[in-house]
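[Help] Beginner question about ligand-bound structures

Sorry if this is basic. My supervisor gave me a protein sequence and a SMILES string for guanosine-5'-triphosphate and asked me to "get the holo structure". I don't really know what that means in practice or what format the answer should be in. Inputs are pasted below exactly as I got them.
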Amino acid sequence: MAKQYDVLFRLLLLGDSGVGKTCLLCRLTDNEFLSPHISTIGVDFKMKTLEVNGFKVRIQIWDTAGQERYQTITKQYYRRAQGIFIVYDITSSVSFQHIMKWISDVDEYAPHLVQKILIGNKNDEEHQRQVTTEQGNKLAKSYGMDFFETSAFTNYNITEAFTRMTELVLKANRKELDSTLPSDNDDLNTTETEQEPEYNTCSCTTTRDYSQLNQLQSRYPHRLVVLAFPCNQFGYQENCRNGEILNSLKHVRPGGGYEPSFTVFEKCDVNGANTHPVFAYLKDKLPYPDDDPVSLMQDPKFLVWSPISRTDISWNFEKFLIGPEGEPFKRYSKNFETINIEPDIQRLLRLTKN
Ligand SMILES: Nc1nc2c(ncn2[C@@H]2O[C@H](COP(=O)(O)OP(=O)(O)OP(=O)(O)O)[C@@H](O)[C@H]2O)c(=O)[nH]1
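Answer (accepted):
No worries, everyone starts somewhere. Holo just means with the ligand present. The predicted complex, written as structure tokens, is below.
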């Protein structure tokens, strides 16, 4: 399978509500401008691939809600960001004054290597300007940041700002990348080594995942809800009738008297024309597993649904973790051991009160 990109980075947009973070993102990824202000709830993200310094860089850009009440949620995203845009609105001196507070939050919660760029958005609104370009430049310089004035309305300087950020993140992570990427002399677009497909979910994997789901549920009985959706679209492995599923778990696989300590729903489709709305929503929000964004099913005989989409679930035991406010947080491939989700669960739980 041809490589889609060489490296994936996570970027974050921060700033007061209404400065234009969502519009900047929509302009970059969809070349659209949204006129009415619909406040972001929690976080959302979009993806874009940029070619920078010969690297194909896939950027996952997280758009955070500027409103105060979401800040406990949005702060959890700082930690995983490699680059952060701090945005103000040139027609709002208040949003400019708040930049210092955003920067101090970044210094507190983001990783040490994080790259920062200051953005003064809405520069098409010259007649309403309250913050001069000079003031923006000066503030950015005092924090050692690059500075761009942009307009999501006229599409001014947006690709430039994101490209610059990608360059900075590449540079900051160069050492790490050099050890994982081919050398400059290698062709970065070479084909990946085909891996042997592992289509038979062997009984030991099934046993492992089921027992780890029980472990997780029992460790957090009041604060975690595990929901399982049986599906017969993967090698027709779930071919029991709904009424037989619990008995099959108990006596066949995993067997040995196994009883799930979590809710098991009726069977549903997770891919194709009859995709259950829960999975349509989750796949829209999290199009690829975080630990394996490129692998798709390699043997076409297992593609038994239609239409086929790049975001489809590829096999049993893909997992989705949903945050305390109902926001899809992370998607894990079938190869990601269920128990290893625990650190992410703990991270989310730390952010909420009982
Ligand atoms: N003139 C002009 N208006 C813009 C620009 N960018 C955004 N806007 C407008 O500003 C308003 C707020 O934009 P959003 O992108 O929703 O703001 P946000 O920062 O994401 O807001 P929250 O989600 O509440 O944090 C909308 O009415 C946009 O149309 C711009 O570059 N120029």
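A couple of things worth pointing out: The chain is about 30% helix and 15% strand. The beta strands are 7-15, 43-52, 55-64, 83-89, 115-121, 146-149, 227-228, 263-264, 319-322, 328-332. Feel free to follow up in the thread.
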